[in-house]
Amino acid sequence: MIFFFFLFFFFFFFFKQKTAYEMLRSLVGSEMCIRDRVSTQSTGEHTRSNMGRMHSKGKGIARRSLPYKRTAPSWVKQSASACVTEICAMAKKGFTPSQIGVVLRDSHGIPQVKMVAGNKIVRILRSQGLAPSIPEDLYCLIKKAVSVRKHLEKNRKDKDSKFRLILIESRIHRLARYYKLAKRLPGNWRYESSNAAALLV
Asked: What DSSP string runs through 21-53?
């Protein structure tokens, strides 16, 4: 009787561990596929590009939750034309689109420019011919990569920074591929670490 009990316990434990291992392995594989996927979906005449997920601890599902109401709040007294003029004036001074949004939010009480002006900041700048040649998120990643590379020139044994540089440049290549598909960058645009500092001028 004791022999059958130990035999049952052995088989139960063995198959349970094997199933858990197989499940864990399949989950990791599927997560990696979702992370690295950049797909294009054709909708009629237009092609819509989906951006792949970035290197992070989470699963990439956290996002902002804007209110359903799309009209400007009652406390916003600025007109659409005045808002566009303010955006263009700040862009000529060298403000980035995110900095413009922060100034409008903190100084003028505008929570969303699209509610007031009917369009987003980058689209307004693009219509006025003031949009940056490189999208801001890609520009910031290139700036970070250049900074890390300068650090590595002085600290060659910093292995953690070497690994972080690989991740940063992987994001740059992935984001550049997305912007080429979305026609935000020319097709022949290419990131090279040797002349990356020239892109920041």
From this structure: HHHHHHHHHHHHHHHH---EEEETTEEEE-PPP
Burial bucket for residue 117 (CB in 10 Å: 0-12, 13-18, 19+): buried
Pair 147, 156: CB distance under 8 Å: no
Q: What is the residue whose two structure tokens read 């902002």? A: 64
Mean pLDDT of the region 124-150:
93
Running DSSP on this structure, what letter comes out for residue 73? P
What are the beta bridge partners of residue 42? 47
Nearest in space to 55 (alpha carbons), one of 147, 168, 193: 168
Asked if pLDDT for residue 32 goes beyond 60, the answer is no
Q: Tell me the pTM.
A: 0.67
**In 37-135, where does DSSP find H-type helix?**
80-92, 97-108, 113-117, 121-128
- 78's tokens: 């600025």
